[in-house]
Design brief:
6-stranded mixed β-sheet; alpha+beta; Phosphoribosyl-aminoimidazole Synthetase, Chain A, domain 2; 7-stranded mixed β-sheet; 10 helices
Length: 343
């Protein structure tokens, strides 16, 4: 009897995805960066410039889903050192639960976010879809960058410092407060929950500014946008792309106190909770101070959380003086909030 492999909610695990990419993805010589674990976007050679392309769905959040979709996709473009410029959206709406007001609110959110970032909303597709119980928006973002300014995750080098902007886990905090607001209202104040909901914009889930400041301040070797699977899986993806190891110091990882409170409430690990809004930056030690100063002068916190090591060292974390493997999260911690209640 054939046994079917069961997959967890969230991203396809890296072993399965890696095998599929190797087996089925074939690119021509114009593709500089093709499908690869750890790279945030594809890069296509256009001569003196590169076209950078990405796509990402919003499946966890429902509140302000249009705003999410633009910023999450813009982050992938910015993480390659490029400027996000053109956005397309596929909007799938649940049958029997879609109102004209809902559709207009999504378009309004997308438009507002695009204007905020100087991006053109230039196409997409919208439909009422059977078989889904919540709105899904699949974003597609295009950007461009000069060849000499392209930054890829594979560029991380042994000896590099690893910077993390803002802290973790911004997107998870906003999602928890928005999607479980009624439940949380029994244990947390209205003011606290409003602050957590507001993480969407302050400190914000976007890293376009973070990436722009970093690349203008130094020769950045690599950047990566940690999303599903949180900071931990973002680091594993970075190591996979660059064929390196890392040593992270747990005490140096900035975790928002609001995040800790909500994660403790739901028994989630912030290291594995969706972390959009933070940016991983790898660069030489002699350039670190300049980038930290430049970011902080624009109100963006930046912390050195570890160093890039040789691949043989592995992906490690120092915690209370002991070095151990960094935890892996094959599915994002936030998915536990969307599991059906078992009786």
């Amino acid at each position: 009897m054939k046994i079917h492999k069961e997959f967890a909610t969230g991203k396809l695990n890296t072993d399965s995805l890696g095998a599929l990419l190797k087996r089925y993805c074939h690119v021509d010589e114009s593709v500089i960066v093709g499908p690869k674990i750890g790279e945030d976007a594809a890069v296509i050679d256009l001569g003196d410039r590169c076209l950078v392309a990405t796509t990402d769905p919003i499946t966890f959040a429902t509140d302000e889903i249009g705003w999410y979709s633009v910023h999450i996709n813009a982050n992938d473009i910015a993480s390659m050192g490029a400027k996000p410029k053109w956005f397309l959206a596929t909007v799938l709406l649940p049958e029997g639960e879609t109102s004209e007001a809902l559709v207009e609110s999504i378009f309004s959110q997308i438009s507002s976010a695009c204007q905020n970032l100087g991006i053109s909303l230039c196409g997409g597709h919208t439909e009422i879809t059977s078989g889904i119980d919540r709105t899904i928006v699949v974003g597609h973002m295009l950007g461009e960058v000069a060849k000499s300014k392209l930054v890829i995750s594979a560029g991380a080098r042994s000896g590099d410092n690893i910077l993390l902007t803002k802290g973790i886990a911004i997107e998870a905090t906003s999602i928890m407060a928005r999607e479980r607001r009624e439940e949380l209202g029994h244990d947390f104040s209205h003011e606290f929950l409003e602050r957590c909901r507001g993480f969407l914009r302050d400190p914000g889930i976007g890293v376009v500014l973070d990436a722009e400041i970093a690349t203008q301040s130094a020769d950045v070797h690599a950047m990566h946008d940690p999303t599903e699977g949180g900071l931990a899986m973002g680091l594993y993806e970075l190591c996979e792309a660059a064929d390196v190891g890392v040593l992270i110091k747990k005490e140096h990882i900035p975790i928002f106190p609001e995040t800790m409170q909500l994660c403790n409430h739901f028994h989630l690990d912030p290291l594995g909770s969706i972390a959009s809004g933070a940016l991983l930056i790898c660069l030489a030690s002699e350039d670190t101070a300049n980038v930290v100063e430049a970011l902080q002068s624009e109100g963006v916190r930046a912390s050195v959380i570890g160093t890039v090591t040789d691949r043989k060292f592995g992906v490690k974390m120092e915690d209370e003086g002991k070095i151990r493997d960094l935890p892996r999260f094959e599915r994002d911690e936030i998915t536990k909030l969307f599991e059906p209640v078992r009786r």
